[in-house]
Structures are given as C-alpha cells and as structure tokens.
Design brief:
This protein is α/β, with parallel strands linked by helices. Helix content is about 35%, strand content about 20%. It has a single domain, classed as Dehydroquinase, class II (Rossmann fold). Strands 2-1-3-4-5 form a five-stranded parallel β-sheet, with helices on both faces. The protein binds 1,3,4-trihydroxy-5-OXO-cyclohexanecarboxylic acid. Belongs to the type-II 3-dehydroquinase family.
C-alpha cells in the first residue's frame, strides 16, 4: 500500500531549529528511516515537506484514490488551517496527526488543532519516536484490511 508522510512549515529546519524542543534529528533522517521501515513491511512511503499551505492541500488532493494512509505533522498549520482540515475531510483519506513536542504543555495557542477530531489518532510529545510509532500503527491498520 501507499503511505504519505506530510510535514508542514519550518520542519525543513529540523535538527537545527530550537533543538531543546524539537531534537537534533534532521527531517531527511526521519524520512529515510520511515521509508526503509515502510519498504520492509512491503509498503511505499511518499514524502512532502512544504512551507506553503496550498502545496500541502494540492498534495492531499493528488493523494485521493492513490494513497491509503497519511501521516501528517501539520506544524503551525495545525492551529490555523481550516483549509487543510477540509482537504483531509474532502478526500476522506485516513490520517494520523503527529507533533514532536507536547503541544499541550506549551503556549495555549498550540493546544487547539483544526485536524485532531477527524484524525484516526494523534501522537505528540515523543519527539521523532512519534513518527516511528505512527508508521507502526499505520502498518498494523493496513494489515487488518
Ligand atoms: C509542531 C508543534 C507546532 O505547534 C509547531 O508550530 C511546529 C511543530 C511539533 O511537531 O511539535 O512547527 O507541530
């Protein structure tokens, strides 16, 4: 099956960006590790990081009828984007929302997500482990079908 990993704005800076919050692993490291894990389970992982809301929306549209599951760290768009919510709802592709940091332990504006209530599940606060755990959960769900 096909799995799509989406990362939102500023996550291209992972590894150097506020490492005390986001850790020292780069996004390239995460994407490579997840692609390997997906391949080992017989699946294919596509990835996109974008700082542009419309590119994320257009990738979700293109994923319709092509992608079986999405793993998304929407970054700051989590807290602002009705449009990304509508894209996910409109294509009806199941997705897991992830955050590196524990958004509930941070500023109040990070505690609301426009996506969480329509997600299959949400993982936050576990750093890069959250990406691995999300992929494991996706693989198990794909195997149940
Ligand atoms: C984030 C949390 C968001 O609040 C923030 O805007 C990010 C990263 C995380 O992974 O912890 O850019 O999604």
């Amino acid at each position: 099956a096909k799995i799509l990993l989406l990362n939102g704005p500023n996550l291209n800076l992972l590894g150097t960006r506020e490492p005390e919050i986001y850790g020292s692993t780069t996004l390239a490291d995460i994407e490579q590790r997840l692609a390997k894990q997906a391949n080992a389970a017989g699946h294919q992982l596509d990835t996109l990081q974008s700082n542009a809301e419309h590119l994320i929306i257009e990738r979700i549209h293109a994923a319709r009828d092509e992608v079986d599951f999405i793993i998304i760290n929407p970054a700051a768009f989590t807290h602002t984007s009705i449009a990304i919510r509508d894209a996910l709802a409109g294509t009806a592709i199941p997705f897991i929302e992830i955050h590196l940091s524990n958004v509930h332990a941070r500023e109040p504006f990070r505690q609301h997500s426009y996506l969480a209530d329509i997600a299959t599940g949400v993982i936050c606060g576990l750093g890069v482990d959250g990406y691995d755990l999300a992929l494991q959960a996706v693989i198990r769900r794909l195997e149940q079908h």
